Amino acid sequence: RDNTAAFTVTVRAPLEKRAFPQQLSRCSIALYHKRVYSKDSISGKSNMSVDQATLDKLEAGFKKLQDAKDCKSLLKKYLTKEIFDKLKTRKTAMGATLLDVIQSGVENLDSGVGVYAPDAESYTVFADLFNPVIEDYHGGFKPTDRHPPTDFGDLSTLLNVDPDNKYVVSTRVRCGRSLQGYPFNPCLTEAQYKEMEEKVSSALKGLTGELKGTYYPLTGMDKKTQQQLIDDHFLFKEGDRFLQAANACRYWPTGRGIFHNDNKTFLVWVNEEDHLRIISMQQGGDLKQVFSRMVNGVKEIEKKLPFSRDDRLGFLTFCPTNLGTTIRASVHIKLPKLAADKAKLDSIAAKYNLQVRGTRGEHTESEGGVYDISNKRRMGLTEYQAVREMQDGIQELIKLEQAA
Predict the structure, then answer these.
(1) Distance spanning both ends of the chain, measured CA to CA
(2) CA geometry: angle 397, 290, 399, nearest 5 deg
(3) E strand map for 204-319
(4) Domains of the chain (ranges plus CATH)?
(5) What predicted TM-score, i.e. pTM, was given to this entire model?
(6) What is the pLDDT of residue 255?
(7) Which residue has the higher pLDDT, 9 or 174?
(8) Does residue 12 have an active-site annotation?
(9) Alpha helices in 165-211 (DSSP H)
(10) Which of 277, 377, 378, 388 is catalytic?
(11) Position with higher pLDDT, 35 vs 292
């Protein structure tokens, strides 16, 4: 039976025009066919081969990368011709190809990294590309290395990084979590989005004490409320061009929402870039209080929802920059003297494994001299170490600002 030939030609056609049940995503259709046909996902040997249209797009994308002399992404750095030829015919059990991994970086040549994992298996199937990217970004985390067990450490050793409130405007610590049994955004069906939202919102509504709050689905939320939450840095908006190009915004806003406690110091983003983003934030520099609240929230949610964790890579996420601890501890901080020379600020921050971003996060500019500065390393160290690295680095930056 020539079912496979017919399937491979049609799999990338617009799904809305096809009569698949429950608006199945392309990855899910591939998973259905995988049950019928044998597959060796690691070697890429499969009756469900990569179709010619995808291969053509891959070849064009690879050429575009090679021709882009100004492109400095890790994708371009590590996707050599040899690696490209080795991986271009591979496919995961859910149907993800190399095109799904690299298309955002191909479309956005100003990407810093340029790769995403459409499902958990992609980290294995496309390891020849992901491993060097991970090693480069995460400070030498080698393919033979294993991420340490979860350890939130002794919270009493953390402190307020700016007790005089002269420099730090606010402090925020977040982590990402993926639910077991579900792929990442590009492979989720509309039905799965709804199912996940139901499970997650139910768990969040059961939180008590300081964490007690309200869940707001994006579906049906009026524009005024939505924009106010975005301006307050409480809510996410539909994915930027990097996420859009990675197919992370399908069926928007179905399944997406925000939970926040009554004080708006504890938030959970549902189905933004990752299944869950668990966030603790408040004005000022009290890192101890902020991190303690996040840890409490993670532990409470984990009692009700099973998280996806890999023995080698730690907690799994859509973007490889967030693997491992998934912890991003950041401050909004004013450093006018150091910031007078942005290149120098970046250089100093890098010495302390810190990353400097604009006021509203990645790919934005500073507003009013306020920068978002966070830990860069998330892998190969514990949660406590990641947060402590940020604490120590910010204290050093403040000392340098005072001495400038």
Answers:
(1) 75
(2) 15
(3) 213-217, 257-261, 266-270, 276-283, 309-310, 314-315
(4) 3-137 (1.10.135.10), 155-403 (3.30.590.10)
(5) 0.83
(6) 97
(7) 174
(8) no
(9) 190-205
(10) 277
(11) 292
